[in-house]
């Protein structure tokens, strides 16, 4: 990783450890550099700390009582984990999409405009432009352009998940975190989501947690394999899936789909 | 679906079948009895009211038009026919509106604090339990509290501070619309808090996370994401309290309702509402009519008329609140319970 110049690194994780009540070592001294404009998949068994790691990167873990972390997460020059970090500004730069689609019980337009309003986009005209741009980027505009005033809860699950992505990218984040985004979607919606991920990586850096090994192989450029709070292996997806250097990685990959 | 139920039914033993048939017939007759009772009550009310309303005769009104006018409007000076449904309706509506104005923000704020901000400790649990218990305290006790605290306490202070030139005759230090509304707000506060708290607790955690992940602060999440999503439960609380406020009598007798008020508590010129005025109230009129007043031609007609008016008024107030709620529900596309 030394040969990568600084500009190619979107996020640099240094010695990150995390503990919370009931699990004193949820993450154990994780260090990794996430390359810019790429898709990085985090794979591993349930409870290995994938989601905890993801939620460190935009400080969503702060919402849980009793969470403690140490180490550094560098987003350019900003230490994400520092107490002085403006969490609101951070979360606008590091967007997140959750397992289940969670649109607000508001109209399609208001869902996408929610973050824009909070970040101080005052003019309605400007908001309309940005909402349209975000919906186009999320490949949803064609389906909802005449339904902007309808409730977001009336969209299909797949549409809702793309709406949630539109809501996040409306704020033009540098990084988008996806926490098992396809786990509640049917195969066709999943396919569309994966195409969307491919489109989005042209403009931003994506980190995706997934249980689905085939999905990781399809969408990602880099893969990180985690086991019991350790980062076992990180490298180009091709290498990880064909010639893993660690025994644990190979066992996991072949054990599931061998 | 029906077919499988039927097969399951036939497969059971004779005893089980007999038992479930008995259960079905008993509950069916219960439902019918309740329905008949309700319908009968309404029919009785309606018939007695109509018979009485359209009565024209000796010692009464000359024709239907003047009879209706007599019933609708209070006529000062003529004690025997001091009736006046309209002033009582106006008083009731003014009271309910004013009470909603107090109970809505206070109830919502308390529920938001308990559900969104306060940590879950034995102390907040105690507060929650106390609020639930307060909902069971008889309203007349709130009436006594209102009389002591609002009327004599607060009202007395207000008089000394702002209306000392009029003393010893009290302005706010006597039962009136403001104190009645505040007292009823207290009566209904637990109802609203419980309804809204339950609504907030039922919202998915996803909603708060989604908002936080977009860079919303705690307060922004509460006011722009959580509260709008909980609006249906806010309206549920307000619907419940509206019906209670319109029908409550006992506490009102202590804090402001009167048999005959010389003027309406609302007016067309500023300040539009007479906060210190005594007011007429349908529930109180009913109480008075049933025990102390005879209005020609006597009988239960007058009582039935007030009762019918009160029931219709409560139904109307509820319909207004429910349609507001269904508008919100439709915008959120949550399945409406209606």
Written account of the structure:
The complex is a heterodimer of chains A (258) and B (338). Chain A has helices spanning 50-57, 87-93, 108-118, 124-137, 141-144, 157-169, 187-200, 213-219, 237-242, 247-257; strands at 9-20, 23-35, 39-43, 68-75, 78-79, 94-97, 175-179, 205-209, 222-227, 230-236. Chain A is of the alpha/beta class and 258 residues long. The two termini of chain A are 30 Å apart. In chain A, the strands form 2 sheets. In chain A, strands 6-7-8-3-9-10 form a 6-stranded mixed sheet, sandwiched between helices. With 338 residues, chain B is an all-alpha fold. Helix content of chain B is 71%, strand content 0%. In chain B, helix 7 packs antiparallel against helix 10 (231-247) and helix 8 crosses helix 9 (218-229). The interface between A and B is medium-sized, with 32 and 23 residues.
Which short descriptors sum up this protein?
A: four-stranded antiparallel β-sheet; 37% helix; 26% strand; B: 338 residues; mainly alpha
Which outline of chain B best applies? flat
Helix content of chain B: over 70%
> Given this structure, which CATH class of chain B is correct?
Mainly Alpha
Largest interface: A-B, 32 and 23 residues
- Rg of chain B, Å, rounded: 25 Å
The total domain count of chain B is 1
User: Globular, elongated, flat, extended or rod-shaped: what is the shape of chain A?
Assistant: globular
What is the count of β-strands of chain A?
Answer: 10
Give the strand content of chain B. under 5%
């Amino acid at each position: 990783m030394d040969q990568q110049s600084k500009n190619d690194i979107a996020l640099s994780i240094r010695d990150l450890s995390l503990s919370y009540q009931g699990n004193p070592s949820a993450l154990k001294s994780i260090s990794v550099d996430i390359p810019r404009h790429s898709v990085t998949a985090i794979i591993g068994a349930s409870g290995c700390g994938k989601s905890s790691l993801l939620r460190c990167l935009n400080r969503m873990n702060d919402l849980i009582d009793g969470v403690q972390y140490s180490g550094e997460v560098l987003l350019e020059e900003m230490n994400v984990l520092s107490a002085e970090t403006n969490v609101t500004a951070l979360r606008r730069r590091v967007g997140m999409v959750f397992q289940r689609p969670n649109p607000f019980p508001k109209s399609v337009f208001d869902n996408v405009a929610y973050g824009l309003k909070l970040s101080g986009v005052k003019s309605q005209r400007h908001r309309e432009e940005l909402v349209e741009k975000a919906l186009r980027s999320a490949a949803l505009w064609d389906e909802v352009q005449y339904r902007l005033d309808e409730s977001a809860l009336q969209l299909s699950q797949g549409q809702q998940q793309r709406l949630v992505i539109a809501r996040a990218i409306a704020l033009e984040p540098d990084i988008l975190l996806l926490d098992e985004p396809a786990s509640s979607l049917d195969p066709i919606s999943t396919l569309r989501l994966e195409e969307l991920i491919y489109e989005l990586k042209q403009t931003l850096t994506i980190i995706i947690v997934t249980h689905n090994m085939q999905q990781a192989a399809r969408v990602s450029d880099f893969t990180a394999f985690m086991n019991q709070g350790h980062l076992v292996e990180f490298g180009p997806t091709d290498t990880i899936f064909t010639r893993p250097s660690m025994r644990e990685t190979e066992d996991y990959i072949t054990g599931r789909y061998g | 679906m029906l077919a499988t139920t039927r097969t399951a039914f036939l497969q059971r033993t004779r005893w089980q079948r007999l038992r479930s048939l008995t259960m079905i017939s008993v509950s069916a007759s219960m439902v019918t009895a309740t329905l008949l009772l309700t319908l009968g009550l309404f029919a009785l009310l309606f018939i007695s009211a109509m018979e009485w309303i359209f009565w024209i005769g000796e010692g009464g009104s000359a024709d239907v038009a003047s009879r209706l006018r007599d019933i609708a409007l209070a006529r000062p000076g003529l004690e025997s026919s001091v009736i006046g449904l309209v002033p009582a309706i106006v008083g009731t509506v003014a009271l309910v509106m004013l009470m909603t104005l107090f109970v809505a923000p206070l109830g919502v704020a308390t529920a938001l604090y308990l559900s969104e901000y306060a940590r879950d400790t034995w102390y907040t649990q105690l507060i929650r339990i106390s609020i639930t218990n307060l909902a069971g305290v008889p309203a007349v006790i709130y009436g006594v509290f209102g009389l002591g605290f609002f009327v004599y306490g607060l009202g007395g202070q207000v008089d000394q501070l702002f209306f000392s030139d009029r003393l010893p005759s009290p302005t706010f230090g006597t039962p009136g619309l403001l104190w009645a509304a505040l007292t009823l707000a207290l009566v209904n506060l637990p109802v609203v808090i419980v309804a809204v708290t339950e609504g907030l607790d039922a919202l998915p955690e996803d909603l708060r996370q989604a908002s936080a992940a977009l860079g919303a602060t705690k307060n922004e999440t509460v006011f722009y994401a959580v509260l709008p999503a909980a609006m249906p439960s806010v309206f549920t609380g307000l619907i419940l309290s509206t019906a209670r406020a319109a029908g409550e009598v006992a506490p009102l007798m202590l804090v402001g309702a009167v048999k005959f008020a010389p003027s309406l508590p609302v007016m067309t010129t500023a300040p539009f509402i007479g906060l210190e005025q005594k007011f007429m109230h349908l529930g109180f009129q009913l109480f008075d009519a049933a025990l102390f007043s005879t209005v020609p031609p006597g009988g239960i007609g007058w009582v039935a008329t007030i009762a019918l008016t009160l029931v219709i008024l409560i139904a109307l107030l509820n319909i207004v609140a429910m349609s507001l709620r269904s508008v919100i529900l439709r915008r959120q596309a949550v399945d409406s319970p209606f």
